[in-house]
Amino acid sequence: MENVIIIGSGPAGHTAAIYTSRANLNPLMLEGMFAGGVAAGGQLTTTTEIENFPGFPEGISGPELMQTMREQSVKCGCRIETLTVDKVDFSAHPFKIFAGSQMYESKTVIIATGATAKKIEIQNGDRLWQRGISACAVCDGALPCFRNKPLIVIGGGDSAVEEATYLTKFAAKVYLVVRRDVLRASQVMRQRALANPKIEILWNSNVTEALGEKMFSGAVILNNQTQATRIVDASGLFFAIGHAPNTAFLNGQLKTDETGYIMTLPGTTQTNLPGVFACGDVQDKKYRQAITAAGSGCMAALNVEQYLHEIG
Amino acid sequence: MENVIIIGSGPAGHTAAIYTSRANLNPLMLEGMFAGGVAAGGQLTTTTEIENFPGFPEGISGPELMQTMREQSVKCGCRIETLTVDKVDFSAHPFKIFAGSQMYESKTVIIATGATAKKIEIQNGDRLWQRGISACAVCDGALPCFRNKPLIVIGGGDSAVEEATYLTKFAAKVYLVVRRDVLRASQVMRQRALANPKIEILWNSNVTEALGEKMFSGAVILNNQTQATRIVDASGLFFAIGHAPNTAFLNGQLKTDETGYIMTLPGTTQTNLPGVFACGDVQDKKYRQAITAAGSGCMAALNVEQYLHEIG
User: Fold this and answer.
1) Whole-prediction pTM value?
2) pLDDT band for position B190 (50/70/90)?
3) Per-residue pLDDT for A185 more than 90?
4) Which residues from A are below 8 Å from B298, CB to CB?
5) What span, in angstroms and rounded, lies between the C-alpha atoms of A194 and A198?
6) For all residues of chain B together, what is the average pLDDT?
7) Is pLDDT at A117 greater than 90 in this prediction?
8) What is the mean pLDDT of residues B105-116?
C-alpha cells in the first residue's frame, strides 16, 4: 500500500511530489498519458515562453519547465508511472485507484489533474495554437507579439470581458466576438466593456477560421444572423469561454462547486473526504497560474504529511 | 501617486512585482535595507542550498534564487528602492508609506515583509548559522549532512515536537532541548514525543554554546537546575521556538491574529482594509515555504489588479 498517490503532473503535482519525496513518504505519481487532452506535464506543455514563473529572468518554455520539474521529482525519489487514472474508489480505506489494468491502494491521494481550457472548433485553430492563439490573457497578453496590435477575444461572459479589458492595456484594439446579441456578463462588466473605447463588440458572431501561415494574422468571422462573413486582421486570438476541471474520473465522489471544481477547505488543500487532497487548477478557477498551482502542491504535500501523522 | 507599492522583497514580493509589472501597473517595490534583520531578498538570503523550489532539479542557493527573482522583477519593469519602511498611514486614501526621508502615496499596497525565525543567543551560533544550524526542519532536514546523524532541536511547543518528529525520519537520533521540566506542546504532541524511541528529551536544559570549526559538530548543554554542563555531539541544531512576523511598521493598523500574523480572507490576500493586501510569511504561519510565498505573491498581484478595476 502506498502512503500517497499523486494524480496529475503539472506544477501542482510535481511540487507535491518534490515535497512528499523529501519528507520520506515515497510517493507514487500517476502522471497521465495524454490525460485531459494534453501530454504529461499538463497545460504548460501546450504553451511557449513563460515569463512570469519566478526564478527565470530569461523566461523558460512551458515544456522545458515541466521537464525540469519532472527531473526534480525523480531526483528527490518520486516514482512516476505514465498511466491515466480511469476511476477511483474513495468509499473505504485504503483508497483504490484504477489506471488501465492496474489497481493501486493508498492511504492518501493528492488530486492535481488540472483543468482544460474550453475551445471552439475553428478551421486552422489547432495548427496556429500558441502561434497567436491562446486561452490565457494574463499568461500571454504581455508578450511582444501582441503589443499595439489588434486582438480578438471569443466569449460573452464575465471572464471574456475581463480578459478583453485586460488586453486593452497592451493591444491597439480588442474585438470581442459574442455569439448572441447580448453579453452574458454581469451588469458591471457589461458596462465596462461597452464603455471601453478600445473594445469593439461583434454581436451575433462566430469565428469560423483562423488565418495565417506561421503565425495567426486574422480570422474569418461569420454573422450568424445575416450569414455574412468578414475578415478581421489581428495578431492574437484568445479563447475566453471558460475552463473545465478534469474530474470525470472521480465520478462524483468528491464535493465540487456548481462548475465542477473540487471544493477545498480555504487555506488548505483538504477536500470533503479526509485523506484526499486537491491542488492546482482542479480546485482553483480564480488564479490558475503555474506559480499558484505549485504553491498549492506544496500545501497538499504538507497537509498529507500532517494527516499521516495524525492517523499514526 | 503609485498604483501599487510592494513592501518586501522575498519570493512573495518579487512574484507580486513580476505579475503587477506584466499587468502594466508600474509597481514600486521598497525592498528594505536589512529589514527584519536580513538582507533584501528575505530569509532565503540566509540559507544555502534549496532543493525544493520547483524548476531547479540541481538545486539553487537561496541568495542566487533571490537574485534571479530580482532580475526578473526589474526586467518586467518593476522599480525597486532599497529603503526600509518605517511606518504607514492607512487611515485615508491614498495610503501613505514612509521610508527614511521619503513619503510615497499609493492606491494599493502589497505587504510581503515576511517573518523572522526566533533564535536564542548561543555562543558561536551566528558563526555556524547555516553550517549545521537552521530554523527550518522541513526546508533543511533532508539535506545529506543531517542523514543518520544525531540532531538537536531547541523548543518545547507543538512546532518543536513536530520538527523533532519530522527529523527522526532522517536522523539517527534527535535531542529535544526543553527549557523547563514540561513540554508546552499539546497533549497529543507530548505523547508523540515521549513515545518516539528516536527522541530523547533533555529537560531543564539550555544550549549555551555551539561547537565546530567549519561545520556544527555539537553543543554545550547546561542543566539549568543543577548547573551541570554536558557536551552533546550532533550534526545539526534546529531552532524551533517560533517565528515573528515583520509587522512592527504597521503599528496595529491591520487586523492580525493572536500571534501577530496579518489576517487575510481565506483563499485571497485581502486584509481587513480594502486596497491593502498581504502575501508570504507575514500572513502564513502554517506553510512558510518559498514556493507557497511565491504563489501567494501572484495572488496578491491578481487581487490588486481586480481591486483597481473595481474602483475604476
Assistant:
1) 0.90
2) confident
3) no
4) 52, 287, 289, 291-292, 295
5) 10
6) 94
7) no
8) 97
Query: Are residue B228 and residue B273 in the same domain, yes or no?
Result: no
- CA nearest to A8, candidates A110, A88, A97: A110
Q: Is 90 exceeded by the pLDDT of residue B245?
A: yes
Q: Which residues of A touch B8 (CB under 8 A)?
A: none
Residue A56 forms contact with B (CB below 8 Å): yes
CA torsion A150-A153-A156-A161 (nearest 10°) is -70
Residue B192's H or E segment, with its range, is helix B187-195
The one-letter amino acid code at A31 reads E
Average pLDDT over chain A, rounded to an integer = 94
- Domain holding B123, by residue range, is 119-239
| Chain B residues 137-166 within an 8 A CB cutoff of chain A | 138, 142, 165-166
Among A190, A217, A239, where does a domain finish? A239
Q: What is the pLDDT of residue A34?
A: 84
Helical segments of B77-179, H only: 137-140, 158-167
Q: What are phi and psi of B35, to 5 degrees?
A: -75, 145
User: Which percentage of chain A shows pLDDT scores above 70?
Assistant: 100
Which residue of A68, A72, A188 is the best one to mutate when testing the B interface, meaning the one whose CB has the most B CBs within 10 A?
Answer: A72
Using CB atoms, which residue from A11, A142, A170 is nearest to B54?
A11
Verify that B179 and B286 share a domain, yes or no. no
How many domains does the structure of chain B reveal? 2
Instruction: Give yes or no: residues A98 and A247 share one domain.
Output: yes
Nearest Cα of chain B lies from the Cα of A140 at a distance, in angstroms, of 10
B275-291 pLDDT per residue, tens: 999 999 999 999 999 99
Dist CA B139 CA A159 (whole Å)? 38
Give me the CATH number covering residue B30. Answer: 3.50.50.60
Domain boundary (A189, A210, A239) is at A239
B186 and B273 assigned to the same domain: no
What part of B 87-126 touches A (C-beta under 8 Å)? Answer: none
Alpha-carbon distance B266 to B258, whole Å? 17
Mark whether B77 and B51 lie in a shared domain.
yes
Contact B298 A286 (CB under 8 A): no
Which sign, positive or negative, has the C-alpha torsion B113, B115, B120, B126?
negative
Give the pLDDT confidence score for residue B311 in this predicted structure: 87
Nearest-CA distance A188 → chain B (Å): 9
Please, which residues 11-30 of chain B have a Cβ atom closer than 8 Å to chain A?
Answer: 11, 14-15, 18-19, 22-24
